[in-house]
Amino acid sequence: MQPHHVVTRGNESVVRKGALKTIQIMTERRQGNKKVTKLSGMESFLIDAEALASELQKKFACSTTVGELPGKKGQEVL
Questions:
Q1: Which of 16, 24, 28, 53 has the most other CB atoms within 10 Å of its CB?
Q2: Tens-place pLDDT, residues 3-41
Q3: Which is nearest to 44 in space by CA: 18, 78, 10?
Q4: Side-chain half-sphere of 5: how many Cα atoms within 13 Å?
Q5: CB atoms within 10 A of CB 39
Q6: Residue 1, Cα to own-chain centre: how many angstroms?
Q7: How many angstroms separate the CA atoms of 77 and 49, rounded?
Q8: pLDDT exceeding 90 applies to what percent of the chain?
Q9: Are 30 and 36 spatial neighbours (Cβ–Cβ below 8 Å)?
């Protein structure tokens, strides 16, 4: 039997093959002492990247942007 998982958010439910992928949180240093936090892998949990970016922008009073992952399917929030 192959591993699978079910993700449920509200009324929406999705069954997928394989193990559940994790959300990746990475920090990156840019131009001197500036730091950028990158989030990726939210699609596995049915989280909309645009909605998350908007919510984080309000919560932390910072700028956010959503970009496509290079060479992969999915988006990342910066």
A1: 53
A2: 888 888 888 888 888 888 899 999 999 888 889 999 998
A3: 18
A4: 10
A5: 20
A6: 29
A7: 6
A8: 31
A9: yes
